[in-house]
Write a structure and sequence with these properties.
Elements lengths: L14 E4 L3 E4 L8 E5 L6 H12 L1 H5 L4 E6 L3 H11 L5 E3 L4 H6 L11 E5 L5 E6 L9 H17 L1
Parallel strand pairs: 3-4, 4-5
Antiparallel strand pairs: 1-2, 3-6, 6-7
């Protein structure tokens, strides 16, 4: 049974292979906010629009010191090709066994990824969580940047 993470919960750590020939962990990002983007698949129309838009707006995230990490169940080879084709400026991580999706509670019926986004503060606490039901739309960069700002305020108040 997957966990249903909510704002205020500690974010589960993970180690996943990703683009750039390395492994990524949430723990190594401690000290800065992280935007975790769970997307159903490489080279699908909505996912492509979503990740291309986030990549175009990457300066808005980096200005706040936020790290963007995108996860899906495809393997690293698929991610490398997808990232290169669309010149994505952030790592794509391979959750091939869907263990991270399970830990974050983003698996839908039949075990498919739900389009979901989490903002995690510098201390590793979930400050924003959105799970799409149908997955045909995605959260805008503006909404996520605002969530990062709010996470920074909430984290400094703790």
């Amino acid at each position: 049974m997957s966990t249903r993470l909510s704002p205020g919960d500690p974010a589960p750590d993970f180690v996943l292979a990703g683009t750039g020939g390395r492994h990524y962990t949430l723990a190594e990002e401690r000290g800065e906010p992280v935007v975790l983007v769970f997307y159903p698949g490489d080279n699908t129309p909505v996912c492509t629009r979503q990740l291309v838009s986030y990549s175009a707006d990457l300066p808005d995230f980096t200005e706040l010191g936020a790290r963007l990490l995108a996860l899906s169940p495809q393997d690293v080879a698929s991610h490398e090709a997808f990232a290169a084709q669309h010149d994505l400026g952030f790592p794509l991580l391979a959750d091939t066994d869907k263990a991270v999706a399970e830990a974050y509670g983003v698996l839908g019926p039949l075990g498919f990824y739900r389009r979901s986004v989490f903002v995690i503060d510098a201390e590793g606490v979930v400050r924003y969580a959105h799970r799409a039901v149908a997955g045909m739309r995605f959260r805008t960069s503006d909404e996520l940047v605002a969530a990062v700002r709010a996470a920074q305020v909430a984290g400094s108040a703790s």
